[in-house]
Input
Amino acid sequence: MKHRPLIALNWKANPDSLKAAQKLFAATKTLAKKYKAFDFVACAPSVFLGGLKPTSTVALGAQDFFWEPSGAFTGEVGFEALVDTKIRYAIIGHSERRAMGETDEMVGKKLLAALGNKVIAILCVGETSRDEKLAYLETIKTQLVSALQKVPKQFVKNIVVAYEPVWAIGKSATREATPEEVKEVAIFVKRVIGDLYRTKSVPPIKILYGGSVSHKNARMMLERAGVDGLLVGRASLDPKELGFMLQNLSMPTRS
Ligand code: PGA
Output
């Protein structure tokens, strides 16, 4: 693996208080100190970001934001205020936001806002279901092409693409993705981005896998799916489970 694996933690709308968020962040930092081979980012609800102190081992990330810096946009979190909280990453286009009406066009605007403000964008792509006709690859291509339409080539290195098949996410997941399925998409994503920017060499982007990642499948994904890291939902809320996962990822390979 070329990169240090990135473990991106997506807390979603959890936990239920700033105090609990600080406790979870502290537990995450303790784990990051122990497992130094990984980069970590905790993506917390916006309301908690100002109350969490990022370190060199655990960066802070947003889960969403508005593409305008500030202004008359009731209920939105303007980009300037978010950057002021010291975020280094922002998740963009998560399937749960797309399901609430976020369009490819909105995703594209958010992507430009993040990159223009030196924030690393975790761009989520993924199909809602699979069929034999490979239509899911078309879905992923459309999501990528429309998001990247206006992104200049020099910004591409600040994009992390998270492949999250919707059918494998959360409690309602129908089944787990296999490393082979994820690998196919990881290669496809790099090819689409390479074609878009007309470069023959593999674009320098990280690809993450997300969808029911746990201590049971994390290592298999990192070793066999050709991804550079993981986007972890439920397991990120449970330091014990996260600890098991990191322990498994760190075990020496049996020869
Ligand atoms: P999950 O969520 O790990 O709970 O499936 C992943 C995500 O939605 O980012």
Notes: The first helix runs from residue 18 to 34. The CA atoms of residues 63 and 91 lie 5 Å apart. The mean pLDDT is 94. Strands lie at 6-10, 39-43, 58-62, 89-92, 120-125, 159-163, 206-210, 229-232.
